[in-house]
Design goal:
single chain; 140 residues; alpha+beta; Alpha-Beta Plaits; 4-stranded antiparallel beta sheet; 39% helix; globular; binds adenosine-3',5'-cyclic-monophosphate
Length: 140
């Protein structure tokens, strides 16, 4: 089933200069890019995005990390894209991520883990609309 997901190339990966390499993996992986935006989040914007994690001990630190520099937000489309993008990202903790995954190759810690992907259709709907207006998404 064709679906959409929100992907983020996080501030650590943008700062390291590996956003292009990650985009290349996205293109080579057969994902269709519908939207892209470089954005430097405020603490409030990061906190709203990660609101589901508000009770977690790492919430404050995660939100601060997400404000350390610009991130690249993307909308990807394709069959089973939510699962396929999460597979390409690898496990949240790069130490546990499989060889060949983005987090294994580019993440430096469980927090500074290079990329984000929506974890369900419900999350994707919230997250895509959090970053993008309907007119910023280019149907293909
Ligand atoms: P992400 O896939 O964006 O979803 C939530 C984020 O919280 C996750 O990637 C990490 O950046 C961060 N995170 C998850 N678990 C931890 C943890 N144990 N300690 C610090 N940060 C975490």
């Amino acid at each position: 089933m064709t679906e959409r997901t929100l992907a983020i190339i996080k501030p650590d990966a943008v700062a390291k200069g590996v956003a292009g390499q990650i985009l290349s993996r996205i293109e080579q992986g057969g994902f269709t890019l519908l939207a892209a935006k470089l954005i430097h989040l405020s603490h409030e914007q990061a906190a709203g995005f990660y609101i589901v994690h508000r009770e977690r001990p790492f919430y404050g630190s995660l939100c601060s990390f997400m404000t350390t520099g610009p991130c690249l937000a993307l909308v990807l489309e394709g069959d089973d894209v939510i699962r396929r993008w999460r597979d390409l990202m690898g496990a949240t903790d790069p130490a546990k991520a499989a060889p060949g995954t983005i987090r294994r190759d580019f993440a430096s810690s469980i927090e500074s883990n290079a990329v984000h992907g929506s974890d369900s259709a419900e999350s994707a709907a919230f997250e895509v609309s959090y970053f993008f207006a309907a007119l910023e998404i280019c149907p293909r």
